[in-house]
Amino acid sequence: MNKDLRKAVIAGNWKMNKNPEQTKILLGEVAPLVANAKCDVVACVPFLDLPAALEAAKGTNIQIGAQNCHWEESGAYTGEIAANMLTSIGVTYVIIGHSERRTYFGETDETVNKRIRAALNAGLTVILCVGETLEQREQGITEELVALQTKIALLGVTKEELSRVIIAYEPIWAIGTGRTATAEQAGEVCGAIRKVIAALYDKQAAEAFTIQYGGSMNAKNADELLTQTDVDGGLIGGASLKAADFAEIIRAATEG
User: Fold this and answer.
1) Catalytic residue among 100, 107, 132, 170
2) Which of 4, 68, 89, 191 could make an SS bond with 230 (beta carbons 3.0 to 4.6 A apart)?
3) C-alpha distances out from residue 12 to 150, 185, 209, Å
4) Distance (Å, whole) CA 90 – CA 239
């Protein structure tokens, strides 16, 4: 991390876990543990839990995010949620392009771009997920693939809007598997993403740009991962569902 140049952000991705009452309990446990964090703290919860999360986060330094949004403001899109619906209740962050959305629900680089456009138009801060499969890593195309995902996702995004975009590098082979990229692997790919941002915009924009690592970051490996210059935080899955573990990761980001 280099907090002199850019903000550190630790965001929890709760995925499809917790009901509203459990949401209140967990955030109630997390809040006092992270009150002195010197990084941004975000909890991205299921749609159903957003009102409960927003209520529980009042008066704390925890910001609330959603896990997806649609590219249209309204219409015949059963089961979808528009970005302006999220902002209307106070949501400030949204995850877009998570590998589970790409794998299970037909998300493509093009639809990721459309969702980002809608989210930015609505005033949300976007956490854009990019990453490769194990097969793609073994083929030696990680950097090319991640660059392609990044370039397509950011089509039409201005330098000014870029300040409301974070990229989370999540190697698909490390998500929910217990396997983690080494600190050096994570730092290398995050550094490559920063070079893409510099090429698309400029060096100043790249140096100010926050890049997270996701993919089984936990309380035990957070310190090492966050020592990497180009790793500015984490998008945390399973560990974000345990107050003590999530707080330990935030401690690592605060002290790093």
Assistant:
1) 170
2) 191
3) 21, 22, 19
4) 25
pLDDT tens, residue by residue, 175-228: 777 777 789 999 999 999 999 999 999 999 999 999 999 988 999 999 999 999
Range of lowest pLDDT (78-92, 108-122, 164-178, 226-240): 164-178
Q: Nearest 10 degrees: CA dihedral of 3, 130, 154, 236?
A: -40
Q: What's the gap between Cα 134 and its chain centre?
A: 21
Please check whether residue 66 lies inside any domain of the structure: yes
- Please say if 170 is a catalytic residue: yes
Separation of first and last alpha carbons in the chain: 7
Give me the catalytic one of 70, 98, 100, 132. 98
Enter the tokens of residue 226.
Answer: 């966050």
Distance between CA 152 and CA 56 in Å, rounded? Answer: 36
d(CA 226, CA 210): 12
Contact 51, 89 (CB under 8 A): yes
Contact 180, 173 (CB under 8 A): no
Which structural domain, as residue segments, surrounds residue 18?
Answer: 9-255
Cα-based distances in Å from 167 to 50, 79, 83, 89, 218? 22, 26, 18, 24, 19
Could you tell me the CATH number of the domain that includes residue 210?
3.20.20.70
Whole-structure pTM value: 0.96
- The number of distinct structural domains making up the chain is 1
